[in-house]
Amino acid sequence: MGSNTLTITDNRTGKKYEVPIKEGTIKATDLRQIKTGEDDFGVMTYDPAFMNTAACRSAITYIDGDKGILEYRGYPIEQLAEKSTYLETAYLLVYGELPTATQLSEWQYNITHHTFINENLKGVLDAFRYNAHPMGILIAMISAMGTFYPEAKNIFDAEIRQRQIYRLVAKMITIAGFSYRHMMGMPKVYPDNDLSYPGNFLNMMFKTTELKYQPNRALERALEVLFILHADHEQNCSTSAMRVIGSSQVDPYSAVAGAAAALYGPLHGGANEQVIRMLTEIGSKQNIPAFIKKVEAGEGVKLMGFGHRVYKNYDPRAKIIKRVAYEVFEVNGTNPLLDIALELERIALEDDYFIKRKLYPNVDFYSGLIYQAMKFPMDMFPVLFAIPRVSGWLAQWQEMLEDPDQKISRPRQIYVGAKRRDFVPIERRK
Ligand code: CMC
Which range marks the domain in which residue 123 is found? Predict the structure, then answer.
C-alpha cells in the first residue's frame, strides 16, 4: 500500500503538492498552499449544503447510510429501542457510556426535579394567540427561558453546563405540554414527579378531571421508543445549527432555540406533519398512481417521508416505527391513512424513479401516523421531534466545546457580485 497522502498537480502552474489523508479525509486548509502567485488566496473547496465536507470529528452517533445502520455511542438503535428508556439513552448520548444504576437514578432524579418552569414564563406563553403554531411557541419559550438563567453563559464551567442540560431536557416536556393546553384553551397541567419522562409528558398533555393521571402503558412505551429513535442523528440540519450557533460561545438556550428553528422546516422535523397532509390529500388508494406520476414529473411535488441525505437504504428508525405503529393501533384503533401509506410505500419501492434514486421511507413516513393515532394534533408533531432531540443537540454542543479543533464557525464564500463601482446619487439613477 502507498503512503497516506494525496498528490495534486496544479495544471495552471505545473506545481505538485502532497497533502496528508487522515481518516479518509483531507484538510480543506491544506489546499490553501495551492496558489498561482503571491496575491492568490489559494484553492478553496465549494460545497453548498455540505454534501462532502466533515465539519467535525464526533464520537456520538454513527450512521452507515448504505447499510441502514444507526448507532448511538456504538449501541445499535434496535437494541436501545427494545431495551432502553429515553432518559437512559439521553444519558448515554451526553456522557458517552450507559449509566450504572446509581448514575441513572441520579440522572432521572435531576431531570424529574427540573421539570417546573418559572411562573413568569407562563406570561410569555399567554402572549401567543390561541392558534399560534406550538413549534413557534417552543422556539420563543426556549429562548426566553435562557434569560431566567444568566449563569448559563458560563459555558466552560462543567457544573453550570450540567445544570443547564438538566433544565433543558426536563423543561422541554413542560413547555410542550403547556403550549398544547394554551392552544386548546385548557388549564395547564403541572409536572407529576411520580411518572416516567414520557408518562409525565402525556400527563401534561391529556390530563383532565382525574385526580391522578395514569398513562396507558403501551402508549407510554411507544412514546419512549419514539423519543429514543429521535434523540440524535449526527450532523443533520438542526444539529449543525446547534454547533454553528454554539461555536459563538452563546448560552445553550439560545443555541437550542436556533436548532429548534432549523428543525421546524418541512424538509427536516416538519416532514411528519407534511406526510399526513399528503396522505390526506391523496385520499384513497386508487389515487396513488396519479400522485406518483406527479412526483415523477418533477412538478415540485415530493413524496414526503421518503429520501434522506445519508440513508440510501431503508431508514432503520422507520422499520422500528412501523412495528410500534401497530402496537399503538391496537390500543387506540388504526389510523385510516395507514392503508394509503402502506400502499404508497409498496408502489414507490417498486417504482424505477425511487429505485434509481435510492429513495426509501425515512423516520417521518410512519411517525405522523402514530402521533395522530395517539391523539396529538398535527401541529404538535415537530414538537414531538424536538423534545428528545434536545439531548442529542446538547451532547453535540458539549462535544464541540471540548474539541480543541473547533473555532467559531465561519464558512468562506465565492464572491460573484458586482465589481467595485462608484456610488450614484439618487437623482441620477435610472
Ligand atoms: N420525493 C421525490 N423525489 C425525491 C425525494 C422525495 N421525497 N427526495 C429526493 N428526491 C429526488 C430529488 O428530486 C433528486 O432527484 P434528481 O436527481 O432527479 O434531481 C434526488 O431524489 C436526490 O435528492 P436530493 O434532493 O438531492 O437529496 P437531498 O439529500 O438533498 O435531500 C431530503 C434529502 C430528505 C431533503 C429529501 O429526500 C426530501 O426532501 N425528502 C422529503 C422530505 C422528508 O421526508 N424529510 C425528512 C427527512 S428524515 C428526518 C429528518 O432528518 O428531519
Answer: 66-268+392-401
Grid cell digits, residue 104: 441513572
pLDDT tens across 179-211, in order? Answer: 999 999 999 999 999 999 999 999 999 999 999
Which of these is catalytic: 232, 251, 315, 364? 364
- Check whether residue 132 and residue 105 sit in a common domain: yes
pLDDT (tens digit, 9 = 90+) per residue, 260-305? 999 999 888 988 889 999 999 999 999 999 999 999 998 789 999 9
Which residues lie closer than 8 Å to 390 by C-beta, 6 or more apart?
168, 169, 172, 256
- The answer to whether residues 103 and 195 belong to one domain is yes
CA of 295, closest atom in ligand 1: 2
The span from the CA of 75 to the CA of 97, in Å, is: 10
Same domain? 87 vs 121? yes
Cα 360 to ligand 1 centre (Å): 10
- Give me the catalytic one of 230, 251, 308, 315: 308
Residues 364 and 282 placed together within one structural domain of the fold: yes
What's the total number of domains in the chain? Answer: 2
Give distance in angstroms: CA of 407 to centre of ligand 1.
31
Q: What does the angle CA 350 – CA 356 – CA 360 come to, to the nearest 5 degrees?
A: 60
pTM of the model: 0.94
Give the number of C-alpha atoms closer than 13 A to the C-alpha of residue 305, restricted to the C-beta side: 27
